[in-house]
Amino acid sequence: MNPRTRLWLVATGGAGLAALLVAACLRLPRFGGDRHPYGDRAVHASLERHTANTVASVNFDQRAFDTLGEMTILFAAVLGCVVLLRQTRDEHRAHPEPADVARPVRRYALLVLPVALLTGLYVVAHGQLSPGGGFQGGVVAATALHVLYLGADYRALERVRPVGAYEVGDALATSAYLVTGVAGLIGGTAFLANTLLPYGTFNTLSSGGTVPLLNAAVGMEVACAVVVLLAGFLDQAVEIVDEGEDDDRAGDGHHHEERGK
Amino acid sequence: MNRRRTLLAVVEVAAWWAALGALWLVFVTVVDPLELAVGAGVAGVAALAARGARRAVAGW
Amino acid sequence: MTAVPHVLPYLVAVWVFLAGAYGLATSRNLIHAVGCLSVCQAATYVLLLAVGYRDGATAPVFSDVEPGTRPVVDPVVQALALTDVVVGATVTALLLALVVQVAKRHGTVDPDELTELRG
Amino acid sequence: MNGWILAATAVLGAGVGATVWGVATGPLRRRVVAQNLSTALACPALLLLAQGYDRPAYVDLALVLALLGPVGTLVFARLLAGELAGDPPRARALTRSAAGLGAGVVLALCVAVGPSRALLKLLVVGVLLVGGNLLASRALSGGMAGARRG
Amino acid sequence: MGEAVIVVALLLVAVSATAAVAVRDPVRQSLVLAVLGVVLAVLFTVLQAPDVALSQLAVGSALTPLLLLLTVRKVKRRGRRRRENEP
């Protein structure tokens, strides 16, 4: 198909889709309307179980099974990345040269790493109280580690990041979620039902029954998943060189820039 | 010299731990024993990470 | 309030989605296409949250407000969008890993050149 | 609608709007500066919104942005060091005025909040925001020159 | 007009999303995507969804740009080799 025909096809299809979508928008309940039956019920259920953050309650209590699905997608995506980005037989590892980063940047990186890690873990731990939770805090904590690559060099990052340990952590966290679910099945009523633990005092760390546990499991899974994911990409971009590919050192003199093709 | 080095390491981690623990207390809204315990643990993890990062950058 | 703000968020979601789809269809670089796909994903978040909004309401998070004192927006759509954001990012990563593989196997990331290679 | 939200609207419309335009056009050196400024301006806007909606919990958003925004700019500074070395960005005045805006907003909020734990949190956010953005700007204009490879 | 801030945030999202599609070079696009992430986070905040905004901030500000730029770096190295092989 030549580009011209394709553009026509895209234009026709896009126009049709746009017309349908706009027609649908005009029939939607108006923005800011007052009728949210599911939302009201979710808030009610969340308050009944002493979970201050209703969104966490929906994710880890009322729709915990759905979150299990999301976790599985995450796990599978990371697995796919690891397989796709693994080192093949015709590739070898070239050790990256130590980078010479300006001193204030390096100091900033060393300062921000623990602070960002603490913030990430704070966001995970208070997921059932204030805005945040395992998904957000996990990403923040994992990003914190990679400040070391930005502010120093890849070798420094590799020293604090044994990838194998994070792969194990990823798997363990996923199983922890499943085990909590099965525990609900054995000790209580149903898979992932929040009937096992006392609901605690409203707006404290231990409130919400199993919500904090599932939250922590997701936080650990996301953090480990992101670390493993970035490890694959960093290895490919920085270390792994295949035969014939010009080495970093040879190619460094001329950094081509592809101006908007 | 080994004991001196251990002492320095302990001091470094303890200093980070205290600073990060104080930061945790700034972040949280309600202070209760469980909150303090979790904060102490998390600050410990972050302090170890801080020391690990500094050593990784400086070379072992 | 006039009628326009009542559909504006939905129309913005439609616009963002269509813009992303146009970029996907006309992209000459697979990395750019993955970026366009994440624009399409953003449209879904905007649509979901727009459906859940309530005039003058606040977030359904009761760590700093007393329950029942202020109207709150719909938490269900927020929970959907929330997991979507992180999972969407990992899916983006998976697609980028595929792009790296394509570049390794065929030496190009231009979809048109890839079609020629196959045919 | 109160004064805080009005101020946030102004910061968003004028400041962040300008950075969107700056990041979409022009040479690479202007785009990276615009990206850095977008986080430097969005963070005060988030703080203003938190105050305007009377939700101290929203300050967490500004905290995360103040931490990760400069880290994002460092990503660009690090991985585009080769492209930026020949044509380093210079935007001292803009960066300083954005930092000044951030500091001003934090101070105004501190006065509004009064002495409490929330005040300390605001100060932490302010220090991270201003320090991070000044440093990210420094990294863009040559701080990563020795890190073109690796 | 209590909704002015929502309208402003919506327009910012629409403009930056359009820019993210219109900018064809992946490096420049990743810069626009980083700004789009921040603007989306602001929109989610004014739509009273701080959880989603936090998610978007965590992902959009550093993680997505890092992934995109690392891919660009890997692919560019390969492309350079290919151009040198077939002049």
From TrEMBL, chain A:
Record field: transmembrane: 68-87, 108-127, 133-152, 172-193, 213-234
A family per Pfam: MnhB
Entry keyword set: Cell membrane, Membrane, Transmembrane, Transmembrane helix
Domain Na+/H+ antiporter MnhB subunit-related protein: 106-227
PROSITE patterns, per the entry: PROKAR_LIPOPROTEIN
UniProt keyword Transmembrane helix, yes or no: yes
Record's subcellular location: Cell membrane
Entries under PANTHER family matching the protein: NA(+)/H(+) ANTIPORTER SUBUNIT B, NA(+)_H(+) ANTIPORTER SUBUNIT B
Protein family per UniProt: Belongs to the CPA3 antiporters (TC 2.A.63) subunit B family.
Name of this chain's protein: MnhB domain-containing protein
Protein source organism: Streptomyces viridiviolaceus
From TrEMBL, chain B:
Keyword Transmembrane helix listed: yes
Domain of life, source organism: Bacteria
Ranges that cross the membrane: 7-30, 36-53
Alphabetic keyword roster: Membrane, Transmembrane, Transmembrane helix
Name of the protein in its database record: Uncharacterized protein
Organism taxonomic ancestry: Bacteria, Bacillati, Actinomycetota, Actinomycetes, Kitasatosporales
TrEMBL record, chain D:
Keyword annotations from UniProtKB, A to Z: Cell membrane, Membrane, Transmembrane, Transmembrane helix
Entry membrane topology: Multi-pass membrane protein
Residue spans crossing the bilayer: 32-50, 57-81, 93-112, 119-140
Pfam families: MrpF_PhaF
Cell membrane in keyword set: yes
Primary residence: membrane
Compartments, as annotated in UniProt: Cell membrane
Domain of life: Bacteria
The protein's name in its UniProt record: Monovalent cation/H+ antiporter complex subunit F
UniProt source species: Streptomyces viridiviolaceus
TrEMBL record, chain E:
TM region(s), chain numbering: 6-23, 30-47, 53-72
Top-rank lineage group of the source organism: Bacteria
Domain MrpA C-terminal/MbhD: 11-77
Any Pfam family: MbhD
Main location: membrane
InterPro entries from the UniProt entry: MrpA_C/MbhD, Nuo/plastoQ_OxRdtase_6_NuoJ
Keywords: Cell membrane, Membrane, Transmembrane, Transmembrane helix
Cellular compartment(s): Cell membrane
Keyword Transmembrane among UniProt keywords: yes
Segment forming the signal sequence: none
UniProt membrane topology term: Multi-pass membrane protein
Protein name (record): Hydrogenase subunit MbhD domain-containing protein
Organism: Streptomyces viridiviolaceus
